[in-house]
């Protein structure tokens, strides 16, 4: 049986990074105003060199609203993916980015991981998660 382990999100081992390069649907967990979790399916990209995970989203989505409601300190969030008994979670502080270069970079990384360019969306923003923890079971 595989054991759960923690890795440095800025310096993951090869197997952890490899798992994040595979095409998997992920979840993003944010917190509602009442503290209850809001979990939604998303595409996530992982950039260990920048210690970031990125999610593209519509600026009117609930997930974006939850991140914005947390204020300038950012929202505590987690993204997770699972494949059978293998799973990986990245945790950190999320911020909504509206600068065109940040959105373009998030879209580029999404296309690279998921094999398709996102449809044009003038209401798109990027959620960037500054990573503080990485966990998994492989």
What features would you highlight for this structure?
single chain, alpha+beta, Pnp Oxidase, Chain A, 8-stranded antiparallel β-sheet, 22% helix
List the helices and strands and how they pair.
Layout: E1 4-7, H1 14-21, E2 26-31, E3 37-42, E4 45-47, E5 52-58, H2 62-69, E6 75-83, E7 86-97, H3 100-114, E8 124-137
Antiparallel strand pairs: 1-8, 2-3, 2-6, 4-5, 5-8, 6-7, 7-8
Written overview of the protein:
There is one protein chain. The chain is built from three helices and eight strands. It has 138 residues and is an alpha+beta fold. The chain has a single domain (4-137), classed as Electron Transport, Fmn-binding Protein, Chain A (Pnp Oxidase, Chain A, Roll), CATH 2.30.110. A hairpin with a 4-residue loop joins β4 and β5 (52-58).
Radius of gyration: 14 Å
The top-level CATH class is Mainly Beta
Number of domains: 1
Termini Cα gap:
9 Å
Kindly estimate the percentage of residues that lie in beta strands according to DSSP: 35-45%
Query: How helix-rich are the residues, as a percent range?
Result: 10-25%
Count of individual helical segments: 3
Structural class determined from secondary elements: alpha+beta
Per CATH, the superfamily is: Electron Transport, Fmn-binding Protein, Chain A
Would you tell me which CATH topology applies? Pnp Oxidase, Chain A
**Looking at the structure, what is the overall shape?**
globular
Q: Could you give the order of the helices and strands?
A: EHEEEEHEEHE
């Amino acid at each position: 049986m595989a054991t759960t382990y923690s890795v440095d999100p800025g310096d993951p081992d090869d197997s952890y990074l490899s798992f994040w390069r595979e095409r998997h649907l992920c979840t993003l967990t944010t917190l509602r105003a009442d503290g209850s979790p809001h979990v939604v399916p998303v595409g996530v990209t992982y950039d260990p060199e920048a210690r970031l995970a990125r999610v593209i989203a519509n600026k009117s989505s609930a997930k974006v609203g939850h991140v914005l409601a947390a204020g300038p300190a950012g929202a505590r969030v987690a993204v997770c993916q699972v494949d059978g008994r293998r799973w990986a979670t990245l945790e950190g502080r999320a911020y909504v980015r509206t600068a065109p270069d940040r959105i373009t970079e998030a879209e580029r990384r999404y296309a690279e991981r998921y094999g398709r360019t996102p449809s044009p969306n003038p209401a798109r923003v990027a959620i960037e998660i500054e990573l503080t923890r990485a966990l998994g079971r492989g």
